[in-house]
Design a protein that fits this description.
By secondary structure, the chain is an all-alpha fold. It contains three helices and no strands. It has helices at about 20-35, 40-60, 70-80. The chain is extended.
Length: about 90
């Protein structure tokens, strides 16, 4: 082990708002991928999921990121062109 301690924190039962970011992402993925297609094979799920994830991260604007896709936003923050900070 490298000596880094990892502590697990669980949300309280019945409190999905404590994990709102993940809940939102999961709902979007479920609606736009899992409920939108009838899959015939696991490889098809993987392929469509990979395409969706690339679009979600590289093309799709996110309101919380000033209308930028996450990859564009991250590049701006790392270049020092944004007043917002990245989480660790």
């Amino acid at each position: 082990m490298c000596g880094t301690a990892i502590q697990l924190w669980h949300i309280q039962p019945g409190k999905p708002d404590q994990n709102a970011l993940i809940e939102r992402y999961t709902r979007t993925y479920r609606t736009e991928v899992l409920s939108a297609y009838v899959f015939e094979a696991l490889d098809q799920v993987r392929e469509i999921s990979a395409e969706w994830l690339q679009s979600y991260n590289e093309k799709r604007p996110h309101d919380a990121l000033a209308g930028l896709p996450p990859t564009t936003y991250r590049a701006q923050v790392e270049a020092g062109n944004s007043s917002m900070k990245l989480s660790p």
